Known about the structure:
The chain has 140 residues and is α+β, with helices and mostly antiparallel strands. Helix content is 31%, strand content 31%. The protein contains three helices and six strands. The chain has helices spanning 47-69, 107-120, 122-127, and strands spanning 9-12, 20-23, 29-31, 76-88, 91-103, 133-139. It has a three-stranded antiparallel β-sheet, with no helix packed on it. Strands 4-5-6 form a three-stranded mixed β-sheet. The model has no long low-confidence stretch (mean pLDDT 96).
Amino acid sequence: MSTSYTAVATATGEGRNGGRTFTSDGLLDVTLAVPKEFGGKGDATNPEQLFAVGWSSCFLGAVKRAAAARHIRLADLAVIAEVTLHHEDDDFSLSAVLNLEVSGVDQQTADELGAAAHQICPYSKATRGNIPVTITATVA
């Protein structure tokens, strides 16, 4: 039996330029703003931050799953997702760097867990071949 979940979010107003987005369950309700780097006020969150939050948490779970499948105990784990919005002329694109910080393993194992998680994580699957993604692993 397969299990699925559908997240439902609505964006209103001016979108990323002072709009609002919220989820159907009411647990997330945020105002949006253009980042200062793009000439906006930067006084609210933006879609790239929301994407980075989702991807980093999903990727962390994928690392844990990859470690469990290999019977590896991790002492500590963090994933920092950097989602960059690029703009040139009238073209916009994204790129990402996923920084895995892990302790309790050696560098080779950390690198292997990052690569394995990139194959498991639904965000990684959705972006594969669509945007440049770099995976780094640092052993603390």
